[in-house]
């Protein structure tokens, strides 16, 4: 936000170099082994990625959403999973920076920025994902603490992270239910345990886990904003940045597979000429590149609005919806271009094909995005 264009260019150049030197060479091996990239995480700390969008006054890089989106896209052109290691962490940070008390900002944000405290957001439960007002995890006041009981599932960074923003019900009988929902910053400790690592189709190497709260005591000082009943809105605010991030991932993936398909089509020959000269392949390449470019533009439209502090749920929803579907479609089209080799783990294409569908599910499914877009269209026209 406070940086001039040349500083942002330098940051992007540093990320470019890191992606090529450190990320690309290990992506396939770590994904195949579903191995956590510990060294990459240490490098991410040094690059400042855990504080990318946290203000400089709290030790972060203070990047605009636009620059942040460019960083995310660049990483996802090569390998999507590592972006998840700092994305949900930054949603937690965004909730604290936007809605936390001054004491919470001063206590948590510098530690989030260095990665000393690192984690994500615990919203989803076994019986409630899209319908977050249906969660059951209860936080009951007990003196100057709250006592948490319940379960979260599918939580990214649940195992490797040491601190999570957890959405709870402080008043399960509230009507409408969101008035009884509150967000807590929970550092791991007695009563807060983690179930086994969940197996996944794609998005490997990053841990997704069940979190179990059994009489877990958290200080009332960790209630975000210091007031009960605000958790649902606080999370919705943080998810705007989250949706821009998912959209940026989709735009990056759509561009990455298009580039791979293009180079393969130039090299691969059938019937005496490169397949890039067969019209059927040309049509695919043209559609893929158009989709990727449109996705990128939508991401930047949403990020610009976010940076101007304007309401951007419609724009973030459009970007998330379009860019994630573009990543899925382009991964499938790239498989067609690569033919049989696309089906081999020796090539990168199959990873994109396994990773992309997650983008249609996370941070609000694409069905929910379309509902958000339409609601805002009606509201803005009324
Ligand atoms: C790899 C991975 C990582 C994740 N990381 C996190 C994380 O870090 N933190 C976290 O809190 N959660 C996380 N999630 C959970 C994710 O956010 C949820 O899966 C998602 O919100 C959808 O919820 P659900 O799975 O319960 O599906 P449901 O809500 O049960 O939806 C099932 C289907 O019904 C559709 N649907 C639901 N309601 C409507 C409606 N009103 N109208 C039309 N269609 C509807 C949905 O779009 C979907 O197609 C993760 C999930 C995965 C797979």
List keywords for this structure.
single chain; 382 residues; Butyryl-Coa Dehydrogenase, subunit A, domain 1; Butyryl-CoA Dehydrogenase, subunit A, domain 2; 3 domains; 4-stranded antiparallel beta sheet; 3-stranded mixed beta sheet
Total individual domains: 3
Percentage of residues in helical conformation: 40-55%
Q: What is the number of strand segments?
A: 9
- The CATH topology assignment of the largest domain is Butyryl-CoA Dehydrogenase, subunit A, domain 3
**The CATH superfamily title of the largest domain:** Butyryl-CoA Dehydrogenase, subunit A, domain 3
**CATH top level label of the largest domain:** Mainly Alpha
Walk me through what this model shows.
The protein has 382 residues and is an alpha+beta fold. The protein has three domains: 5-114, Butyryl-Coa Dehydrogenase, subunit A, domain 1, CATH 1.10.540; 119-227, Butyryl-CoA Dehydrogenase, subunit A, domain 2 (Beta Barrel); 233-381, Butyryl-CoA Dehydrogenase, subunit A, domain 3. The chain has helices at residues 5-33, 38-47, 65-76, 81-99, 102-114, 231-267, 279-307, 313-338, 349-355, 366-381; strands spanning 119-122, 138-142, 145-156, 163-169, 181-187, 192-197, 208-219, 269-270, 273-274. The protein has a four-stranded antiparallel β-sheet, with helices on one face. The two termini are 33 Å apart.
